Amino acid sequence: MLRLNSARLDADLAAGVAPETSPLHAARARRLVASRMRDACAANWQHLLLISREPIRGLSGRAPICRERVRRAEPEIRELITALRTTGPIPARGVAIATHLLTDGRGPIYNPGTPDDLSTIVALAVEHLDPALPLTQNLSGLHATDRNARSCR
Question: How many domains does the chain have?
C-alpha cells in the first residue's frame, strides 16, 4: 500500500503535510529519512547532473530533461546532495521535496513549460533538510519558495 501511494505521499509531505497526519504519511516519512533512501536520492541527483552535461543522443528510453535548467541549478543541487548525505536525523519534508522533484514529470526537471524555478525549489529542499529544525516542523512564514513547493502536489 505504501509503495502504491508513494508519489501522492511524497507530494503531501513536500507541500508540508505533517508526517503525523496518517499512518501512511508517517511510514513514508520514516522511509524517506532512512540513510539508504537519502543516499539513493543523492545519487540520483548526482546522476541528473552528469546526464545534464552529456550531449543529446538520438532516441533514448530516458525521459528528456531540461538540461539547461538543471545546469543553472547546479550549485543548489550540489548543496542538496551534501545535505542529503549528512548523517543524523533530518526533517522528512526536505527529502520529500527532493524525491518528488526527481519523479514528477510535470515539474521543472522534465517540463520546459512549467514556470517553477528549479533552483528555488531545490534551495527550499535544502532549507527543509536543516538538522537543526524540529523533525516535523514546517518553516514559519510563507514566502515565494513555499508557493513553488505547493506546485509539487
Answer: 1
d(Cα 42, Cα 7) in Å, to the nearest integer? 18
- d(CA 152, CA 56) in angstroms, rounded, equals 27
Helix axes 35-53, 92-103, angle to 10 degrees: 40
Distances (CA, A) of 59 to 56, 62, 63, 64, 69: 9, 9, 10, 10, 21
DSSP helix/strand/coil, 1: coil
Inside any domain, residue 116: yes
- As a whole number, mean pLDDT of residues 78-84 equals 98
Question: Is residue 1, in this structure, part of any structural domain at all?
Answer: no
Residue with cell 513553488: 148
At which residue does the C-alpha cell 534551495 appear?
123
- 90 is a domain residue: yes
Residue 58 lies in a domain: yes
- Nine-digit cell string for 71: 545546469
pLDDT, tens only, 5-35: 899 999 999 999 999 999 999 999 999 999 9
